[in-house]
Specification:
Helix content is 33%, strand content 27%. It is α/β, with parallel strands linked by helices. The protein binds S-adenosylmethionine.
Length: 380
């Protein structure tokens, strides 16, 4: 089956997530924010942090699609009461016309339907897409071909923002991960039980539980462990997760004593909250402390596990007016510990995207960006 995926803001990170879940061989083509893939699996949008909507391709035609063919497609496929059309090339007036004429044909067949004029995700969700009340068709043109597709899934933004802003224990000073990014990181790590040794408010654990994983979480601060437990109880009551799949405890990530997990997904200390007036020397000194913490954590992790383990980790990047300050020597140090950085976008991929070993996750005006790495430790 061929699908068109509308990618999130961090397009390459989304592609890396899709490669990790469906394999690099699924890639067909990329056209700005749209990715075409082929897979025998059902694409489950609820699993993916970096995909906004998923369309299943019904047909593709070379050149142009006549208006009457679009109307036929809508009329022959529509089952519910509301229709919407999304397109990356049709003008609003053509879309209007297709909708009006489809409605006319359906009416003549005794079926009354309504239009959905704005097909943005929030409108689609608000109008009951998830309850099957609305059908959205997509007409996309990429590289001289027109694809006719039906919307299969939309990212449940309300659920993500609920888990972000409505959880009872929040601490903005801590630097909480956006849940969608946490979900992408979990997918980059692969299947199995997830351990977050710097769990903070428990964002990674929450997303992993929603993804039906077992989880283990620890933090050096007792109050964060109380808070994480509170959040996991809230999650269970709101999202029906199973807390018996979760264990959280106080521990120093530099002294890891557990090995009963499959993958590590984490974001360690991000440094003190930034005002923007810190000197370069202050920022460099703080980054050195952070680098030492990550190195100590990774050393203790490798001593605790006696098997291959994948670690997806977010490392801070400080942004001053003049410079970005990275954990410069981290990769070299962790290589010497026996970790290797595995490519998030592999070399020689079908889309001819540049190979990438890490990604910067950033938002305008942020003073701290996140650099995402996937590390593999293989015991010698
Ligand atoms: C950036 S926050 C993690 C935020 C988390 N990802 C979230 O979304 O809530 C880093 C966390 O690491 C914890 N921490 C700092 N040093 C630690 C250490 N040596 N061992 C374990 N946890 C530590 C802090 O208490 C803090 O909760």
């Amino acid at each position: 089956m061929h699908y068109i995926l509308e990618l999130g803001r961090n397009i390459e990170l989304s592609v890396a997530e899709i490669i990790s879940v469906y394999g690099a061989e699924c890639l067909v083509s990329i056209h700005s924010e749209y990715l075409v893939i082929e897979t025998d699996e059902n694409v489950d949008i609820d699993k993916l942090g970096g995909v906004v909507s998923v369309y299943k391709i019904a047909t593709e035609v070379e050149g142009f699609l006549e208006e009457k063919d679009m109307i036929n497609f809508v009329v022959n496929n529509l089952e519910s009461k509301h229709i919407g059309i999304e397109s990356n090339f049709l003008s609003k007036s053509i879309i209007d016309n297709v909708l009006k004429r489809s409605k006319g044909v359906l009416k003549s067949k005794g079926k009354s339907v309504r239009f959905l004029m704005n097909t943005k995700t929030a409108t689609i969700l608000g109008s009951g897409f998830l309850k099957g009340k609305v059908e959205v068709y997509g007409f996309f043109r990429f590289a001289g071909k027109v694809f006719v597709a039906a919307l299969e899934g939309v990212q449940n933004i309300d659920a993500y923002s609920g888990r972000d802003f409505k959880k009872p224990y929040r601490d903005a000073k801590l630097g909480m991960l956006p849940p969608k990014l946490a979900r992408t990181m979990i997918n980059l790590a692969g299947e199995g039980k997830v351990y977050d040794p710097f769990c903070g408010t428990g964002t990674v654990l929450m997303e992993a539980l929603v993804d039906k994983r077992q989880v283990l979480g620890s933090d050096i601060q007792q109050q964060n462990i109380f808070g994480t437990k509170e959040n996991l109880d809230w999650l269970e009551s709101r999202f029906g997760t199973n807390n018996s799949d979760a264990e959280v405890f106080v521990a120093d990530a530099r002294k890891i004593s557990r090995s009963d997990f499959d993958v590590v997904v984490t974001e360690g200390y991000l440094g003190k909250p930034k005002k923007g007036n810190e000197s370069l020397i202050e920022l460099r000194d703080e980054m050195q402390e952070i680098e030492d913490l990550y190195v100590d954590f990774l050393e203790s992790l490798k001593n605790a596990v006696e098997k291959e383990v994948i670690v997806v980790v977010s490392v801070p990047v400080f942004v001053s007016n003049t410079k970005r300050i990275y954990c410069e020597n981290l990769v070299e140090k962790l290589n010497s510990l026996g970790y290797s950085v595995s490519a998030l976008i592999p070399n020689g991929n079908k889309l001819e995207l540049e190979a990438q070993d890490s990604f910067l996750y950033k938002r305008k005006d942020q003073k701290v960006f996140r650099q995402i790495f996937r590390l593999t430790y293989i015991p010698r």
